[in-house]
Amino acid sequence: MGIVQYVAKRLGLYLAVLFVGLTITFFLPRLMPVNPIDGYISQLMSLSSGSLSSEAVAELRVNLEELYGLKGDLLSQYISYLERVLLRFDFGPSFAYYPATVSDVVFNALPWTLALLLTTTVLGWALGNMVGLVAGYFHTKKLATLLEVVGILIYPIPYYILAVSVILVFAYVFPIFPLSATFPVGEMSLNKLGLILYNAFLPALALVLAGFGWNILSMKALAVATTEEPYVTYARLKGASNWTRMTRYVFRNAMLPQVTALALSIGTIFNGALLTEIIFSYPGVGLIMRTAATGGDYNVLYGVITISIIAVATAGLIIDLIYPLLDPRIRHK
Question: CA-CA to 299 of 20 to 30 Å: which in 118, 238, 259, 333?
Answer without folding.
Answer: 118
